[in-house]
Amino acid sequence: YAFELAQSRPRKTLTSATKSNGLAISMPYWDERVEAMAENYPEIRWDKQHIDILCARFVMQPERFDVVVASNLFGDILSDLGPACTGTIGIAPSANLNPERTFPSLFEPVHGSAPDIYGKNIANPIATIWAGAM
């Protein structure tokens, strides 16, 4: 799905989040699968970046990215980092998409249930509203 999404966008670029130099069992397989998929999409410019430098570049050069594909672990980290760069994760929606549409996709606020502010009358519902709009 990530390559199809990149193909539908004007920049036609994709970045794969990896850490094959540190997770020697699982990440080389991830890299191989991404490379194999890339062969089916020759018009897509793609690269792979280690998650640590990718996080730094998200902060310092966010404009360089369009579509990023990541494992659940790295995707979860990046999905918190992106909104945090705007100053808060409190207003960010999130989507876990099922591109085949055989099961429903999941849309939710990034911030979770925020039990630490329960009863203080300070909750901002915008992330929930935006998740519903997605």
Structural features, described:
The protein is of the alpha/beta class and 134 residues long. It folds into 2 domains: 87 residues, no CATH class; 47 residues, no CATH class. A 3-stranded parallel β-sheet has the order 2-1-3. A two-stranded antiparallel sheet has the order 4-5. Helix 2 links the parallel strand 1 and strand 2. Helix 3 packs parallel to helix 4. The two termini are 18 Å apart.
Unreliable residue runs: none
The global form is: globular
Question: Would you report the number of β strands?
Answer: 5
Beta fraction: 15-25%
Distance between the termini: 18 Å
Q: Specify the biggest β-sheet.
A: 3 strands, parallel
Taking strands numbered 1, 2, ... along the chain, how are they ordered across the largest sheet?
A: 2-1-3
Indicate the percent of residues in helices: 25-40%
Give the averaged pLDDT, no decimals: 91
Can you write the helix and strand succession as a string?
A: HEHEHEHEEH
- Count of discrete domains: 2
Strand pairing plus helix content: what structural class? alpha/beta
Number of helices: 5
Rg: 17 Å
Secondary-structure map with pairings?
Layout: H1 2-8, E1 13-18, H2 27-38, E2 45-50, H3 51-60, E3 67-69, H4 72-84, E4 93-96, E5 106-109, H5 126-133
Parallel strand pairs: 1-2, 1-3
Antiparallel strand pairs: 4-5
Helix pairs in contact: 3-4
Pfam families: Iso_dh
EC number: 1.1.1.83, 1.1.1.85, 1.1.1.93
Enzyme class: oxidoreductase
